[in-house]
Specification:
Elements: E1 2-11, H1 12-15, H2 35-47, E2 71-73, H3 76-90, H4 102-117, E3 122-127, E4 132-141
Antiparallel strand pairs: 1-2, 1-4, 3-4
Length: about 160
């Protein structure tokens, strides 16, 4: 078991494009569906795997391009430390004052290490100065508990 870290920061408007943050349905629209529905399905099917947007389900980071992996760690504590470093880096820009609280952030890092150690994924999101958003995720791999069939992005 190992862990991959992901970070996305950008315009909240882009983050809100939920259709590009969820995988397309396994089956295309039935014959006779509206051209708009078919077009939209094709667009999402083509863009979801390559879009840099955080997926709605954390495990789906694993199907994104390998270039989006910000780090890989064998130990949960190392992955949690990376997350803690990112939190410290971005905390001055957090929109909500309570999100900047160092004790709260330290607690997130501690709980992250515990959750990753148990094989779970972690995902956090923070509003930055408006209208921006930060998404941080660490995904457990080989296999992922939520989606065991997803391939590891570190394997060529």
């Amino acid at each position: 078991m190992h862990h991959h870290g992901y970070l996305w920061a950008g315009a909240k408007e882009r983050f809100d494009q939920e259709a590009l943050r969820r995988p397309p349905p396994p089956e295309p629209p039935p014959a006779g569906s509206s051209p708009e529905l078919i077009r939209r399905y094709r667009e999402v099917a083509a863009e979801f795997p390559t879009a840099d947007l955080p997926p709605l389900e954390t495990a789906y980071w694993l199907i994104k391009p390998r270039s989006l992996v910000r780090g890989t760690w064998d130990e949960a504590k190392e992955a949690a430390a990376w997350l803690g470093e990112r939190l410290a880096e971005y905390a001055p820009r957090f929109d909500a004052e309570r999100d900047r609280d160092t004790a709260r952030l330290a607690g997130l890092v501690e709980s992250t290490a515990e959750r990753l150690g148990s094989g779970a994924d972690v995902s956090y999101g923070f509003y930055l100065e408006r209208p921006s958003y930060l998404s941080l995720a660490v995904v457990t791999c080989s296999p992922n508990r939520a989606h065991a069939g997803l391939a590891c992005p570190a394997v060529p």
